[in-house]
Amino acid sequence: MTGKKQAPKLEDVAREADVSTATVSRFVNNPAVVAKATADRIRAAIEKTGYIPNALAGDLASQRSRMVAVLIPHLENSLFSDMIERMVGELTSSGNNVMLGLTGTSQKRTDALVRVALARRVDAIVSTGPVDDDLARLVGRTRSLWIEVWDLPDNPVGIAIGFSHQDAGRDIARFLVSRGYRRPHLVTADSPRSQRRKQGFLDEWMELTSSVPTEAHVDVPTRFGHARRVFADLRHLEERPDVIICGSDHLAQGIIVEAQAAGLKVPDDLGVIGFGNNQIAGEMRPTITSIDVDGERIAREVMAAIKRHQEGQDFPVRAIDVGFRLIARESI
Amino acid sequence: MTGKKQAPKLEDVAREADVSTATVSRFVNNPAVVAKATADRIRAAIEKTGYIPNALAGDLASQRSRMVAVLIPHLENSLFSDMIERMVGELTSSGNNVMLGLTGTSQKRTDALVRVALARRVDAIVSTGPVDDDLARLVGRTRSLWIEVWDLPDNPVGIAIGFSHQDAGRDIARFLVSRGYRRPHLVTADSPRSQRRKQGFLDEWMELTSSVPTEAHVDVPTRFGHARRVFADLRHLEERPDVIICGSDHLAQGIIVEAQAAGLKVPDDLGVIGFGNNQIAGEMRPTITSIDVDGERIAREVMAAIKRHQEGQDFPVRAIDVGFRLIARESI
DNA sequence: CTGAAAGCGCTTACAG
DNA sequence: CTGAAAGCGCTTACAG
């Protein structure tokens, strides 16, 4: 035992301020509704007792948690970092308690985190990945809103705020053709989203050029460290590619470093395109051509959806397409 | 309104399984204590009703939350990413619910997050930064354990698990002297930890060489993007430094990129040393000399401390020094 | 503007 | 191994 005395509760503050617990509760949740003189006494009593409201009890009694769970796969090397930081900031400043959960790439951990979030009766779960059918059913039975970001699944569990990865792949293909590239090398991860971008790219590329790109695979998340192997493996190709399409800006950065170490110039000898428009894309030398996704817009839409849900309103729209933009820079 | 019916509760499961709520509760928390036949009925009832325990009510009744709050400044470019991921993984798999909080660099947000954590009656708060006096007093009155990691303050609020940043600075100085460097350029952020590393470096350097290093400042977190300005500013120095001491591996990476873009060879024309031994330190070309901190050890000690605290034991030790190691690589 | 009291959904000592 | 019942610390409709 730590020997610390019990935490003061509403009752202790009430006694100290000589009011009822109901009045202290009202003051804590909305100071404006109690009389000035009473408020002053309560404030003093809270200060004196060191009272910290018990949110567990409060949420239980009021039947709402004002908590939002945000699930991300990784801290570092994530396509979502900028968006998530922005979203967490906005959620926090509008009075929500954010519970960040680290899922890794394991479905088991995702499952566990979703259950924990539901058990704490969160208002919403924001996830960068899809949920499997069993879990979807479970979520569907609760009052918690499921928000998937960065993708537009055909039949979203709750609501989806994202863009078409297939279209992004197509756009990249068109862009490379327009720049005169002939031998693209496509580096893809095993995630459903990467696979759809790849499909979009392949469809469009083959349609426009009647040729077939070479390919390589990397693990999720696609990061800087993968570049060494990917680059080294190029020598097994019959012809060296003239452009490498990466699943993230970090990987693109790694490819540039490897290319330069091998004496190649980017983009003269080899073009490189990233994905996600992470901060480093604009900071690397050469700066990295990438696909930008409007993280601010996503954050805003997430906020709006949660607010509507908290206010008990329905959603006319289940999917919001925020689009994307190809940002041409020096690396291509 | 969503039109969803009320979430099923213990009572619904109990009725369905024809037992008391007490028994269902026991089953949920420890399946082994109920008879096999009863357990089977309850399991079926839970399945049928889609019951998800209300952790808010459970924690309130049992007076323990099994929640741990982990406070970090940023997602990306953080010295702590590897350690935090590891820690979160271990905490989660040993039955704790982890609440990740994003503090940014603002004390106000840190304050708010600490209050939220305390209000939810977390067992412990793990933080990569110190807490101000008022908040420390507040935390001290609760049953929540404060754990500061990556530093060893003189008088820790709860317990501290880290290392001496001053010693790290001194070690770097000795190392550079031993490698024959003469004109170090020290890039420091405004954080207390960076400042102490700087002080250690300066003390040792001046003692050994009787010369004074040049310096530059960057914002926290020290990241890749800062490199451009830092490097450009070198031309204002009377003599070009022969080695740059960076506050993070990301910044070191940026310096290497800038140096190469300017036609300098690392380490022949310019040495670079990072800090934190992030994954990229071993992956960059050239690989980056850095200070390694044993994140696995820190994670383990954090786990042990939380476990002891949850079991009501006292701490004989308030500060645990996990040390650090200088990893010499190609960049120096 | 304020108070008395019921209720939120669990847990757990106690008794059997 | 199981049940009846008190209690965890709040909130809030109702009444004044």
Helical/strand content category of chain A: alpha/beta
Give me the oligomer status: homodimer
Output the CATH topology of the largest domain in chain A: Rossmann fold
Which bin fits the share of residues in helices of chain A? Answer: 40-55%
**Order of H and E elements of chain A:** HHHHEHEHEHEEHEHEHEHEEHEE
CATH class category label of the largest domain in chain A? Alpha Beta
Query: Helix count of chain A, per DSSP?
Result: 12
Coarse shape of chain A: elongated
Question: Distance between termini of chain A?
Answer: 64 Å
How many E-type strands of chain A? Answer: 12
Q: How many separate structural domains of chain A?
A: 3
Regions with little confidence, pLDDT below 50 for 5+ residues of chain A = none
The greatest inter-chain interface is formed by: A-B, 66 and 66 residues
Largest β sheet strand count, sense and barrel closure of chain A: 6 strands, parallel
What average pLDDT do the residues of chain A reach?
93
CATH superfamily of the largest domain in chain A: Response regulator
Q: Kindly report the spatial arrangement of strands forming the biggest sheet of chain A.
A: 2-1-3-4-5-11
Q: Which percent band covers the strand fraction of chain A?
A: 15-25%
CATH architecture call of the largest domain in chain A: 3-Layer(aba) Sandwich
